[in-house]
Design a protein that fits this description.
Layout (H helix, E strand, L loop, with lengths): L2 H19 L40 H23 L9 H10 L3 H18 L11 H10 L3 H13 L5 E8 L2 E8 L10 E7 L6 H4 L3 H11 L3 H8 L2
């Protein structure tokens, strides 16, 4: 072997040794392309929350709001849009669907439309701001029907305890008088021509993460700490 060949072989060996010692360069990270969120299918759109998910804590925690609004309430709208597609319901407002499906005893549509409407009213009444106690005409009506705000809270808590299983408790205006009405599942006084002023959800998904089985404690805390009485008053027309 001549000197030139030896140098060439030596150089090749050196290069091979160097290559073996190299640490592989990490591959370039691939940026995932995020798909554009699809627009809600159908004519019925879930309104945005009028507050941040943690705004109702500790009475209603952020996790409860995320599940209640983002899963349960959303699911009612999604199901309603599927059921209404290609039917006369598709051209109606949500309120019209509630009343029409209740009258027609169309339970499949009513259960979804009723719960969608009920929850719209529910979240709106917790809009931050407003007085901590009823005022004006609303306060007068509560005084005439219950005595005072504390008596209303007590009566509502008791009414909530009488709702068997899942349902709602509503403060309803009827010819200027106020009364409490309990309903099961998706039903509401509105579906039958009534005028709800507030609605307290007593389905377990509304309170179980925060209060476990203490429904009465949850209802009392909601009325004493979360209700925006200006919203309730506006529904009365005060």
């Amino acid at each position: 072997m001549n000197r030139r060949d030896a140098l060439t072989l030596g150089g090749a060996a050196a290069l091979a040794a160097t290559a073996a010692m190299r640490i592989p360069r990490p591959a370039m990270a691939q940026t995932a392309v995020q798909p554009t969120p699809a627009a809600p299918a159908g004519p019925f759109k879930q309104p945005p929350l009028p507050f941040k998910e943690d705004a109702l804590a500790p009475t209603i925690g952020a996790e409860t709001v995320a599940l209640h609004y983002g899963k349960h309430h959303k699911a009612y709208f999604d199901a309603l849009n599927k059921l209404a597609a290609g039917t006369p319901y598709e051209a109606m407002t949500l309120a019209e669907v509630v009343v029409k499906s209740a009258t027609a005893k169309d339970a499949a549509v009513f259960n979804q439309a009723g719960q969608a409407w009920n929850h719209n009213l529910y979240w709106e009444q917790f809009t931050p701001g407003g007085p901590k106690a009823p005022q004006g005409r609303l306060a007068d009506a509560i005084g005439e029907s219950f005595g005072d705000q504390a008596a209303l809270v007590k009566a509502t808590t008791e009414a909530a305890g009488k709702v068997f299983g899942s349902g709602w408790v509503w403060l309803v205006a009827d010819a200027g008088k106020l009364e409490l009405v309990g309903t099961s599942n998706a039903d509401s006084p509105f579906a039958h021509g009534g005028q709800p002023l507030f609605g307290i959800d007593v389905w377990e998904h509304a309170y179980y993460l925060d209060y476990q089985n203490r429904r009465a404690d949850h209802v009392k805390a909601v009325l004493e700490t979360l209700v925006n009485w200006s919203v309730v008053s506006d529904r009365l027309g005060a």
